[in-house]
Write a structure and sequence with these properties.
Layout: H1 9-14, H2 30-37, H3 49-52, H4 56-62, H5 83-86, H6 90-94, H7 110-115, H8 117-122, E1 127-128, H9 157-167, E2 177-178, H10 180-183, E3 194-195, H11 205-210, E4 220-221, E5 224-225, E6 246-247
Antiparallel strand pairs: 1-3, 2-6, 4-5
The protein binds heme C (HEC) (7 copies).
Length: 255
């Protein structure tokens, strides 16, 4: 696992989670996984081949996924495949399927955190999607079986932002006056796992906007001098550009 990204030190420090930094890599903690999987009493690892007969679709998808290229050995040294995330499957197989006899990560993000430790820190930041609260799952945005576990697969506006629109319809538009930045993706401005800034913004206040809107003749932005305005509040607070995702009424995205 040496290729794995180290924990985001900065993030953890900000969140006051320095304690977790002693775990500098993402070694799977066998003990905690065993506890997670012990939901199903007496189950043993049987190997992915046993799953194929009944779950052909997942098997076909999974073969092409990032996750299928990593594999951890079970007690006997065999690579785990499906059981890496679903836990030992013998009882589920013997009973011919079922719900309570196999671990489903949708119910508990701990499984994902056992490898993606840095994500746990992100989801503890003050502004976040309510995954820890049990109101949504990693699987709402990521398809763990899919060829690309990222939430999108194409570069079109809809492909990039489509996942977000499933739940956030107001930002979808179409708007008479679009904000070009939205076309570059919601994650241009939002850190969707979690952020220290309200509304999960990447950067605080006007600095968010000034990353793109600093022209040569600053403090002029566009055709108008902003020198007095920039001290009055954020670019997107009342009276200014409140329709930041797009507007049907005003080409300067004011309302
Ligand atoms: C990286 C972790 C991971 C691996 C590896 C994995 N799964 Fe899953 N699996 C999930 C998650 C997360 C869900 C929940 C998906 C949801 O609810 O949208 C899931 C759900 C399922 C379901 C329930 C139906 C569905 O599609 O939501 C089945 C069946 C399943 N997996 C079978 C398999 C099989 C068979 C394999 C191996 C070929 C496998 N899984 C490998 C994470 C994984
Ligand atoms: C004999 C057929 C059969 C085999 C073999 C089998 N499953 Fe299943 N599995 C099912 C059926 C049927 C369901 C749906 C149960 C339901 O919806 O009530 C299911 C459901 C699941 C679910 C979803 C459980 C949930 O919480 O909704 C997962 C995950 C899963 N299987 C993983 C696996 C894995 C991993 C293997 C291999 C170790 C495997 N299955 C082998 C028949 C099978
Ligand atoms: C056994 C360890 C392990 C588990 C469990 C695991 N992952 Fe991963 N995951 C990895 C590794 C290793 C990579 C590749 C990392 C890299 O390339 O930086 C990865 C990559 C990813 C990526 C990036 C995918 C891509 O195509 O670049 C996403 C998203 C992801 N995992 C989400 C999840 C989610 C959600 C879960 C829980 C359902 C999960 N992972 C469970 C180890 C794991
Ligand atoms: C609201 C949607 C959403 C949820 C919920 C979500 N993710 Fe993500 N995730 C994203 C997006 C969007 C990206 C791409 C980030 C970017 O490009 O800035 C991403 C990227 C990733 C990556 C790969 C890039 C990286 O930062 O290393 C991993 C791994 C990952 N997520 C894991 C998880 C895990 C684990 C969970 C659950 C605890 C989770 N995600 C929940 C939307 C989500
Ligand atoms: C499965 C549904 C779902 C998906 C998909 C989803 N979100 Fe969310 N989002 C939520 C929920 C639930 C909240 C929390 C709302 C609350 O606390 O009132 C939220 C909150 C937010 C907030 C903060 C809103 C506020 O008023 O503070 C932003 C910004 C956001 N999401 C952006 C995104 C982006 C960008 C994506 C795509 C990468 C995305 N969401 C995908 C359900 C979702
Ligand atoms: C140019 C930067 C930018 C982009 C791109 C962007 N947002 Fe936002 N978003 C903001 C700002 C700034 C706020 C806070 C507005 C406020 O506090 O009045 C916000 C707030 C939100 C909120 C909270 C409700 C609201 O409107 O105040 C949601 C939900 C949201 N964004 C979703 C999205 C989604 C989904 C996308 C992609 C389609 C997206 N955002 C793209 C800057 C952006
Ligand atoms: C990723 C780059 C990017 C970010 C970040 C960004 N914008 Fe934009 N914005 C653009 C582009 C590109 C255009 C279209 C070209 C132009 O008019 O400059 C635009 C256009 C606009 C317009 C319409 C132009 C006009 O004449 O009035 C307004 C208003 C605007 N942005 C406000 C904001 C605000 C407020 C923020 C911060 C919340 C922000 N932008 C963040 C790239 C960005």
């Amino acid at each position: 696992m040496s290729h794995f990204k180290p924990i985001l030190i900065q993030l953890c420090a900000v969140a006051g989670l320095l304690g977790t930094l002693t775990l500098t890599s993402t070694a799977v903690e066998a003990a905690s996984l065993q506890k997670l999987f012990s939901e199903v009493e007496g189950a043993e690892y049987v190997g992915s081949d046993m799953c194929v007969a009944c779950h052909e679709d997942q098997e076909r998808e999974f073969k092409l996924s990032t996750h299928s290229r990593i594999s951890f050995a079970d007690d006997s040294g065999e690579p785990q495949g499906c059981e890496m995330c679903h836990g030992p499957g013998s009882v589920h197989v013997e009973e011919g399927g079922g719900k309570d006899n196999i671990f489903n990560p949708r119910r508990n993000p701990e499984l994902c955190f056992s490898c993606h430790l840095d994500k746990q820190a992100e989801f503890r930041l003050p502004f976040r999607h309510p995954v820890m609260e049990g109101k949504m799952a990693c699987a709402d945005c990521h398809n763990s079986h899919g060829t690309d576990a990222q939430p999108w697969t194409s570069t079109s506006l809809d492909g990039v932002n489509g996942k977000c629109f499933q739940c956030h319809k107001e930002q979808r538009g179409p708007f008479v006056f679009e904000h070009e930045a939205v076309g570059e993706g919601c994650t241009t401005c939002h850190k969707v796992h979690g952020s220290i800034h309200d509304k999960m913004l990447k950067v605080r206040d006007n600095n968010l906007c000034l990353r793109c809107h600093t022209q040569m003749n600053f403090p002029s932005i566009g055709d108008s001098n902003h020198s007095g305005r920039l001290t009055r509040g954020t670019c997107f607070s009342g009276g200014c550009h409140t329709a930041i995702h797009g507007s049907n009424f005003d080409d300067h995205l004011r309302y």
